[in-house]
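Sat 14:20. Reprocessing the chain from the morning session after the first attempt stalled halfway. Input below, unchanged.
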Amino acid sequence: MRITPLEDWIAGKLGVTGKPVELMERLRIRQLELLNATLAHAARHSPFYRRRLGDCRPLVSLSGLADLPFTTSADLSEQGLQMLAVSQGEIKRIVTLRSSGTTGQAKRVYFTRSDLEYTKAFFRCGMSRMLQPGQRVLVLLPGELPDSAGRLLADALQQQGISCHVAGLVSDPGAIAALLVEEPFDCVVGIPVQVLGVVRHPLAAEVPTHRIGSVFLTSDYVPSALVGEIRRVWGCPAVNHYGMTELGLTCGVECHALDGYHLREPDLYFEVVDPVSGAALRAGETGEVVVTTLTRLGMPLIRYRTGDLARFMAEPCPCGSVLPRLGKVQGRLAARVDLGGLLKPCMSDLDEALFSLRGLLNFRAVLTMLDTDRSTLQLMIETLPGAERRTRDHVDRRLPTIPALRAAVAAGRLVLQPTVLADAPLSVSATVKRIIEQPQKENANLETAC
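Finished this time. Tokens:
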């Protein structure tokens, strides 16, 4: 098994040619240097961080970062331009992130040209072991605007002689499946539920096995059923990419081992903390991912609470790398539905249980409060043509077996309503994750990378 390309990439940046232990020592030294430079830059040029950090002295160790306050999604929404650390004239890309609620204030994230170039550099490195010059990539991400996710990826890969067809978000899975049959693509990049719609279309089975060498999945939770379906139909690995718009789209990516994310450590510093106390957690303990940007000029983020739940992996990567790994993101704090006590189901619970049903393409889940102690949950599903009733019946039988839902029903906290069929394809966003919707509540802090 080939080692992650990130190790050579980081070693090259640090000028390290010696033993792996030297790589980690030099990496942590360099991160501390970049962190102190970021703190000084933010305190000097950002009105928000000037107030937040005050007279912040250089840190003597990375552990000292834990003494600094967190930055939150609410700060992005409320402070906006106050967080900029450059003039507005230096900003080349502004991304507006809207929550899935109706009244939440939008967040705007600002990038300079150098910020975007760092993103492109990681795209090139993260995909380099799966792609070679002369190969072709089908990109199922937004690409209409300059420096949008699809366009940034295409620009990055084209610099390595890899051609990209940016098709945008999938509105017709059959058309994309037909394109894959008609034209040879070596790789597909897309949003999990949209790729599922393509791979489950009947035409997808006509793509020659192993023609597609890899599928990169990004922007939302990746259910294990989708990984298995891609392997079954196309005979290739599904690689999980971790990123979010606030942090420059890309934070980490799996290697050939497909066992956790190797991280963008030259540009970002990662922590995993207890969601309640904010205390640092040990490797193996699941908590909230907190990230500090190290090379970001336009809008530096210091100890940004992502809302993502994951853990640092204690065991070495099977690929042989010494680099730390972040385990698969298990969902988002804000996406968990509180039904009282320990009853907190989330969309990933439903995804893992339901997407193994072959006729299912997508679904919406809506939680409605009946009173202070009880709620109802109803799903609206999108299925393969001809599989509507059968899939609906399977969903209705599967839902009560999901542990989190079964416990809530047994406690009298939840009533499961009959599943309904969607009369049109369900919408998919590149910037908002699928969640269990709660019409009576504002669903804030649910944006993700596109």
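Confidence is low (pLDDT under 50) at residues 442-450.
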